[in-house]
Amino acid sequence: MYSGCGCSAQGSTSPKCNQFGVCECQENYDGARCDRCRLGYYSYPRCVKCSCDPRGSVHQFCDPNTGQCNCKGSFRGLNCNRCRSGYYGFPDCQACKCNPAGIKPLPDGQLVDCSLSNEYSKIKKKILANEQLRTLSLSSSPKSSTLSLPSAKTISKT
């Protein structure tokens, strides 16, 4: 092993290199000096593992600088785990069938389409879950119950 090779302190396992000047890299680093992220990792010098959603991404690799995954046609997001504009219902991401005449523009001029229902659906599910919990806790709370019995007559023998 040779020293003084310029091995990256973050990416190499040692400051020494082999006779060809190649440093030994940690698992998530690559290059002769371990000074870049290995394929499937991004954001040197941290080299974070890509987390591309297999349902929405073309493959498991991402942009080495930003971490942006390569999304299939109807997907979006850093990890391709959301439907792109004009689509709804992740992970199936079906095309919206909204009538363009009925789409209302936002104050900034952007058109609202059914893809916003993705975020709305998540919020709605949380609200419904909270309401179900509230209903369940009310229905399982102790209730006062009255038991009516027929009144007994006293019969006296005389």
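Second entry:
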Amino acid sequence: MIELEKVTVKEGSQQLREITALFGAGVFGLLGSSDSGGSLLLSVLAGQTCIQRGEARILGAPPGHVSIQNKLAYIPLKVSVPDALRVDETLALAGALRKEPLVPAAVRLEKFGLAHLAHRPMRTLSPFEQRGVLLAEALTSTTVRVILLEEPYAGFDPYVSSQLRLALRACANAGACIVLATDSPQTASGLCDVHYLMRNGVLQASFTLGVPPFAATRTAVRLQVVTENIATLVNALANETALTGLTTQGNVLCLEGNNAVDLAAAFSRAVVQSQVAVYEARFLTSSLADLSVAPSLDTSMLAD
């Protein structure tokens, strides 16, 4: 759905340097600090920022092309809304532009706990409420196939966040391509099928942190990591309480924990902190008894 070939952009303090990637159906996370380039890449894909070198295609067309506008939703951290319209009028207009049947605004907003906003003027909503309305529009659309989303949970209460997570997963399962930018490893590990670590405008090696099917039935899980700098990553993991064990052999690191989601989040935080390149990360599906144990980690690798 999204093809990037050596995309290069410079805008202010942010930049993208020869980004090459392919995003299909699923949820893809751009994980990095606010100036790493994730939000800039979303802006490029939305057609808001021009590519200086390289090429991008979304659903077969260049970013911003009229043929894909009704199939794409872009929700940055700071959104622009039609101040003169009410919420229900905004949703009706969006539906008309996407050539969708009219659905009552309260119905589209209800599952996100936002139905009470249906008749409010958009200008009277808080920035987070405005984002919630635009997210509800995108996630209940029958036409949208690509969703570009910055910091999906920012400003939302736990109920709305949980409903957003379910709706995003349902859209991805139905074949949508969702690309989100976040600096939160916890957000990324709970939402994304594939993570891309972004640093200084460079899209580093991707890694997958799916929750293994045995996570709910076994008392221990293992995450195998291939990285160029084990010592640096180990130092970043030193204070992670989700980690119950750690072994290493060559450039392969094996992390142990009692909860797959917590272990994945701990690993993501350490990757962001250490900024090391990760070539592979996957849960081991064999039982612990069946796995050969790598040599114990030399404690001299740990920082004093």
